[in-house]
């Protein structure tokens, strides 16, 4: 009898992401009829050490954003190399794709082509086994639902306002279940819309790439205070139930020539920015700050982490880019207490899981994350449960490409029933 897990067929097409940009979707089918489909996301704010997203660059088509080369690479190079291999041999398949690519940053085949294939292989194997992806990846003990970080005020590269900080997030920690946490988040999101409309007018409730509002604000404290108002208006405690987190994406407002950061209309040197973050974190009981400094400055991250001790989580994203090598440097400098996990930053599922293992072995929290250019693909919801979170970051509770992840987590919670545990009950912050 033939092995039902053997990859029988691989195909790829160009589809659209949430910004209307082309991206790669890969379909993998096994001999046993298991089918896996996965779509590569795309970031707007990208670290310079990320694996390369291959685009055609033909200005006559999709303004240079088409991905027909990446699609062709799946069909002409990747498919012949992995057909006939057992889909459960994830590491072998990922290693083969890396070898066929032959570059340090996956620039020949494209990280978008490789990642979509890598994830589709895992999904095809899970479908062949007829078990949910989160259980296929994490085993029967995968039952912890992650705490969502919801970006509901957008700034930086995600919006057209003057806010330097890219994301202002609410984090519903103090709840018994994931579904209760989501209910609170939605209520606050709706209330924030009313608050912003009253304060700034109808144009203030236009949304950014990740579903958050993009009001005409300039100052960080202004945005945080508005979030606090919405939280309190809904009757929630901002100290215990719903905390606030920031994604600064500081590399985006770092001026290399003057070695300063342009924020709140001022130019701050590194030392002044450190004091700024410290005062913001203490004043507003901030749960976490992501990428508070330029992506090269491991020492500044470490200084802020030391200053804030265990009061605020210091998160690396552009700093660590889901790379084991970058994370090892961060660990050496004691730079971070959490890391963002974006599979498309590194390009394969295996390398993503290695990064997560290294983080967890060093008591560093993992935050499984979307990108600003997303799709209906819900793989990261399963990944967050498979690796026991404790966090997931996937945008506001709006726009189909964001709610696709939240809805899948609600389905997983229903599937697990009484075995489901909400990570908010386990986190000691």
Automatic annotation (TrEMBL):
SMART domains: Enolase_C, Enolase_N. Mg(2+) binds at residues 247, 290, 317. The active site is at residues 210, 342. Catalyzes the reversible conversion of 2-phosphoglycerate (2-PG) into phosphoenolpyruvate (PEP). It is essential for the degradation of carbohydrates via glycolysis. It is an enzyme of class 4 (lyase). This is Enolase. It holds the Pfam family Enolase_C. Its EC number is 4.2.1.11. Its cofactor is Mg(2+). GO terms for molecular function: magnesium ion binding; phosphopyruvate hydratase activity. It is found in: Cytoplasm; Secreted; Cell surface. It catalyses: (2R)-2-phosphoglycerate = phosphoenolpyruvate + H2O. Substrate binds at residues 158, 167, 290, 317, 369-372, 393. Keywords: Cytoplasm, Glycolysis, Lyase, Magnesium, Metal-binding, Secreted. Residues 142-429 form the Enolase C-terminal TIM barrel domain. InterPro entries: Enolase, Enolase-like_C_sf, Enolase-like_N, Enolase_C, Enolase_CS, Enolase_N. GO terms for cellular component: cell surface; cytoplasm; extracellular region. Binds a second Mg(2+) ion via substrate during catalysis. (2R)-2-phosphoglycerate binds at residues 166, 342, 371-372, 393. The keyword Cytoplasm applies. The lineage of its organism: Archaea, Thermoproteota, Thermoprotei, Desulfurococcales, Desulfurococcaceae.
């Amino acid at each position: 009898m033939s092995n039902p897990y053997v990859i029988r067929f691989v195909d790829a097409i160009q589809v659209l992401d949430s910004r209307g940009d082309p991206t790669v979707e890969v379909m993998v089918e096994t001999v046993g009829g298991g089918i896996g489909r996965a779509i590569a996301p795309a970031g707007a704010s990208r670290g310079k050490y990320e694996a390369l997203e291959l685009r055609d660059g033909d200005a006559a088509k999709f303004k240079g954003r088409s991905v027909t080369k990446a699609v062709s690479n799946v069909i002409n190079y990747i498919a012949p190399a992995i057909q006939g291999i057992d889909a459960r041999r994830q590491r072998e398949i990922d290693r083969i794709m890396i070898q066929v690519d032959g570059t340090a940053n996956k620039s020949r085949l494209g990280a978008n082509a490789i990642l979509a294939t890598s994830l589709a292989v895992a999904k095809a194997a899970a479908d062949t086994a007829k078990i949910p992806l989160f259980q296929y990846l994490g085993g029967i003990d995968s039952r912890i639902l992650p705490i969502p970080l919801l970006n509901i005020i957008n700034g930086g590269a995600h919006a057209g306002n003057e806010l330097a900080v890219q994301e202002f997030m609410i984090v519903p920690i103090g709840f018994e279940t994931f579904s209760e946490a989501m209910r609170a988040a939605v209520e606050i999101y709706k209330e924030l819309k009313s608050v912003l409309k009253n304060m700034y007018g109808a144009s203030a409730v236009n949304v950014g790439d990740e579903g958050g509002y993009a009001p005409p604000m300039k100052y960080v404290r202004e945005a945080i205070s508005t979030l606090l108002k919405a939280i309190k208006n809904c009757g929630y405690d901002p100290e215990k139930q719903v905390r606030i987190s920031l994604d600064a994406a500081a590399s985006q407002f770092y001026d290399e020539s003057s070695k300063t950061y342009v924020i709140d209309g001022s130019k701050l040197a590194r030392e002044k920015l450190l004091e700024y973050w410290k005062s913001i974190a203490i004043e507003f009981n901030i749960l976490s700050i992501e990428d508070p400094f330029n992506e090269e400055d491991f020492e500044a991250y470490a200084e802020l982490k030391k200053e804030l001790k265990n009061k605020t989580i210091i998160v690396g994203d552009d700093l660590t880019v889901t790379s084991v090598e970058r994370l090892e440097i961060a660990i050496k400098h004691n730079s971070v207490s959490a890391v963002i996990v974006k599979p498309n930053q590194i390009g394969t599922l295996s390398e993503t899981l290695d990064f997560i293992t290294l983080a967890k072995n060093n008591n560093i929290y993992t935050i499984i994350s979307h990108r600003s250019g997303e799709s209906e693909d819900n793989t990261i919801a399963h990944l967050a449960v498979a690796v026991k979170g404790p966090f997931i970051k996937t945008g506001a509770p709006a726009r189909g490409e964001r709610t696709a992840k939240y809805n899948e987590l609600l389905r997983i919670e229903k599937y697990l029933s009484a075995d489901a545990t909400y990570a908010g009950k386990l986190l000691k912050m």
